[in-house]
Amino acid sequence: MGRLTVTEPTTPAKPGFNLGEGPGRLLVWLYGVFTVAAASRSIVQMILDFGRAPLAYVLSAVAAVVYAFITYSLVRGGPAARKAALVCCAAELAGVLVVGTWTLVAPSAFPDATVWSDYGMGYLFIPVILPVTAMMWLRRAAQPQAG
């Protein structure tokens, strides 16, 4: 006859938590503020004096788009949004490091500052701290939570 096997019930792991909850809410807020700040700054600079420092102003506009996408991804949540936000945060960090180094090595290329100039010194270094913090949060959110 057949054998009956008894197994211990297992508690299924809960899927990753909502990206916009807890500390994620602060990230959403900070990215939202930086979206508005970078976009406002770049729009005003491009309208008033684009010829003075076009590279700096375009880089600030790019930063605003990156910040907006990350904000949207954090609010949207879910595995696909988390992965997209993680890639964007890595690109953001690379941008901050490249632009920050570039502004130190060749300051004449930047007659005016960008959001990422000097590693975000004009913004209390938040532009370099924010993507690192966000990537840590996103990686934590990807891990199943034990119930």
Instruction: Give the number of domains.
Output: 1
**Low-pLDDT ranges:** 9-14
**Separation of the first and last Cα atoms:** 37 Å
Shape: elongated
Mean pLDDT: 85
Protein name: Integral membrane protein
Keywords: Membrane, Transmembrane, Transmembrane helix
Transmembrane segments: 26-48, 54-75, 84-105, 120-138
Structure in words:
Keywords: Membrane, Transmembrane, Transmembrane helix. This is Integral membrane protein. The chain crosses the membrane at residues 26-48, 54-75, 84-105, 120-138. It comes from Streptomyces klenkii. This protein is mainly alpha-helical and 147 residues long. It has one domain (23-141). The protein has helices spanning 23-49, 54-76, 79-105, 126-142. Helix 1 (23-49) packs antiparallel against helix 2, helix 1 (23-49) packs across helix 4 and helix 2 packs antiparallel against helix 3 (79-105). The protein is elongated. The model is unreliable at 9-14 (pLDDT under 50).
